[in-house]
Amino acid sequence: MEITKYFFRRTAAAAGALTLTLLGVAGFYDRTLPDSYSVAHDGKLELNTFFSISSRPAKRSYMTALTDLSGDTSHGRESTLMLFGAVPVKDVTAVCSERPKLVPCGETFGIKLLTDGVIVVELTDVGGRCPARECGIRKGDIIISVNGRNIRSNRDISEEVRKCRDSGCEVVYRRDGKDKNVMLEPAYFEGGYKAGMWVRDSSAGIGTLTFFDKDSGVFGGLGHAVCDSDTGNILPLSEGAVGDIEITGLIPSEEGSPGQLLGEFSGEEVLGEITLNCEAGLFGKLENSPDEKEEVELGYKQEVHRGSVQIYSSVDGKAPEPYSARIEHIDLSDGVEHDLVVHITDERLIGETGGIVQGMSGSPIMQDGRLVGAVTHVFIDDPTRGYGIFAEDMVSCAEKSR
């Protein structure tokens, strides 16, 4: 009898511990997994997570089905995510739509951006004081207008400050998405009136195209925002252009020192326009397809799994080539900074570049014949590894740039 009781207590304790563990895992996924998913027309929703998660129609969806005889699921269908097919995690929305088809690229492109307003990159004393700091302007603020004149360059600010002399200038600047009005009293220094700030009004560089939509001409590239090098803030875009770039050299990556592609604009010809600079990359329209590749299907984020992939990139200015790699980590969480960790395994690419170099950002990631992501950043301490972004998130942003 005592043995039976002991066995029962041990079994009950183990069952309780297992239940608590399952509830803890379910709670973690409830907090971190997205509330909405895109799915193909078959409506199947399964997640490639560490622990097995499938889905079943949510209970309230049965009532919805009785009232919606059309079968239209384009507005979304309620599903319940299930841990190991048994433990409910959360109710989510699965939106059925036709899976997009896109041309995976891998070509390098030249980036030219003009800012909407100018970014304050440094404050400095002039004549023993800093007028900009005195009126509340800080590094990273965006100067929108001075005395009612829209500002596009450092020259614009200088001209307006000279006009107002010591009578004061009305300055409108933007911080954290909010505009503020202040009066700036210039300082007389070295024969002229100064505001005491350095600003940036443009940027140029090299990136890699991720995809091209043949039907709309829309492209996506880079996989991350173009940010100001001094403030780290996303450059507010006024207008941008895609230029033809000629790769002139390569500095390989090594531990502690990321390499980079070297290049220069090969002419004044504009190949397309950039209309959006956001956290997911650069988006706009190209005059022509960068290459005559075949379209492939988009892979949705929940379909991406750990394992072998190919990345397409051009590190010598020639046609993009496929290189072998592996996805080592996936994070489906909403608002996470990095979606993927990618490990370059192709000895050919490692021999040429050391792994990932600056300028490869945007290189498309292919898995199971679908476009699933893009390379974004290189690890400083291990250039064979880097971060990536889901292609689905880039395509969502591309739709906003149409």
From TrEMBL:
Quote the InterPro entries the UniProt record gives: PDZ, PDZ_6, PDZ_sf, Peptidase_S55
**Which intervals hold domain Peptidase S55?**
176-402
Q: Where is the PDZ domain?
A: 106-153
Domain of life where this protein originates: Bacteria
Stated name of the protein: Peptidase C55
Q: Which organism is it from?
A: Ruminococcus albus SY3
Lineage, please? Bacteria, Bacillati, Bacillota, Clostridia, Eubacteriales
